[in-house]
Design brief:
alpha/beta, globular
Length: 198
């Protein structure tokens, strides 16, 4: 990481994440639907590319047991600090109790793990338009770089998941080369979820 790169912070209580946690609470958002959450279903989830932990926190907030895997020691440390801070909040403590953070390469760790759903959110291809991604994502990219092994990770996820794999991908980006077509897609404003049902 360059010296002029801002410090990576994982904040689950403030900003957009905290607002979403305090006000949303429903299972109708695109990520939850892609992961198979419904009125009677709360699947276990492995977030194989934890990053800043926002998706994992949302899913744990919906009641899921979530395992987060992060291979960057810097990002892992930021996640651990963010989770510790959230654990001190009375409302968020129960959510954090459903989250297990692991340090390592998901391609290796997934072999010894099992969950109904594996979520994969690799570093996305560079945008073709002028608008910059948000500062937090630029900082994360500066720390971890490009994910050149995304296809290998998807293959490991497909071998591990008991029910489905969800690939979080830019809305208009081409499909990841080498993958079979997804079973279906769920789209948002800028993101789509490619769902591979086992």
């Amino acid at each position: 990481m360059r010296e002029d790169t801002p410090e990576l912070v994982c904040d689950f209580l403030g900003g957009a994440v905290g607002h979403r946690f305090r006000t949303e609470g429903g299972r109708g958002n695109a990520l939850a639907r892609a992961c198979g959450f419904s009125k009677g279903a709360t699947p276990s989830v492995i977030d194989a590319t934890a990053g800043r932990g926002r998706d994992a926190f949302l899913l744990a907030g919906l009641g899921a047991q979530v395992t987060l895997i992060e291979r960057s020691p810097q990002v892992h440390a930021a996640l651990a600090a963010g989770l510790a801070a959230a654990r001190a909040d009375a409302k968020a403590a129960g959510v954090v109790e459903r989250m297990t953070l692991l340090l390592g390469d998901s391609r290796e760790l997934l072999r010894g793990l099992s969950a109904e759903v594996v979520l994969v959110d690799p570093m996305h291809p560079p945008r073709g338009k002028a608008a910059l991604v948000k500062q937090g994502m630029r900082t994360l990219r500066a720390v971890v770089g490009a994910d050149l092994d995304s296809l290998e990770l998807m293959q490991a996820a497909l071998a591990c998941a008991r029910q489905r794999v969800v690939l979080k991908w830019p809305l208009r980006a081409a499909a990841m080369a080498g993958l079979k077509p997804p079973s279906h897609q769920i789209t948002g404003k800028t993101t789509r979820y490619d769902v591979f049902v086992k």
